[in-house]
Amino acid sequence: MALKMKHLMEATGESKSTILFYVKEGLLSEPQKPKPNLHLYDESCINIIKFIKYLQHQFSYTIAQIKTIFEENNFTFSDDFSMMLRSLELMGGSPNGKWYSDEDFLELSELTQEELNNYLAKGWLFKQEKGFSSKELQLVELFKRAKALNLSEELFDAYVSSAIEIAKIEYELSAELLESDKTLNNEHYEVIFDTILTLKPYIFNMHTMQEHQKQMELKKSGEESC
Q: What are the φ and ψ backbone dihedral angles of 133, each rounded to 5 degrees?
């Protein structure tokens, strides 16, 4: 089903200028032009525009970042994980846009190759396709501070083992959702994104806070009973 600009605006709540901007940036495909003054847009543009708005409002993505996810107009709501993987890679990327080769990263982090290999093997750090980001540099500094304070590595290892188990479940449930409905749209991906990127850290952090509160209350009650 093809839509006129007016109908596309009504369905998405976006202005004409914004839709034309998305076309110009390659986020939407060029409309069909059966007549000089008639431009017809594919119905899939509705879900794409809604998903663009979702990424902007929920995660403050820029148009440049969204273009990276969409792979310059090759984006489709398909039954694979390519779009989600690109989004997660972007989330785990460098906040300042800088990427470092192994040599540069070792120099900046002041790590030995053996130390870096150890962090990678433990699953504490990851090398992405573009190399290492400033986020990995921040984590190396954290590891050094923790070591200086004799903080047990048990916590970091626990994060890794928990993350691996959770990741398996996330993949299985996401795959089940995507495979159960071949007419995928932005709502499918919004649910998956919100679950992985919003609900998961919320649950982890809230349980951490509750555990601290519980332990503080137990300590307080123990002191009062003495």
A: -110, 175
Same domain, 170 and 59: no
At position 190, the amino acid (one-letter code) is E
Q: Say yes or no: 41 and 130 in one domain.
A: no
Q: Is 83 domain-assigned?
A: no
Give yes or no for a contact between 70 and 25, defined as CB atoms under 8 angstroms apart: no
Q: What 8-state DSSP symbol labels residue 42?
A: E
48 and 75 Cβ atoms separated by less than 8 Å: yes
Digit-coded pLDDT (tens) for 166-209: 999 988 887 777 676 656 566 777 788 888 878 998 999 999 99
* Claim: this prediction has a pTM higher than 0.90: no
Residue 141: in which H helix or E strand, if any?
helix 134-148
Residue 93 maps to a domain: no
The Cα 99–Cα 94 span in angstroms is 7
Q: 167 is in which domain, residue-wise?
A: 99-225
What CATH number is attached to the domain comprising 62?
Answer: 1.10.1660.10
The pair of structure tokens assigned to 55 is 């990424």
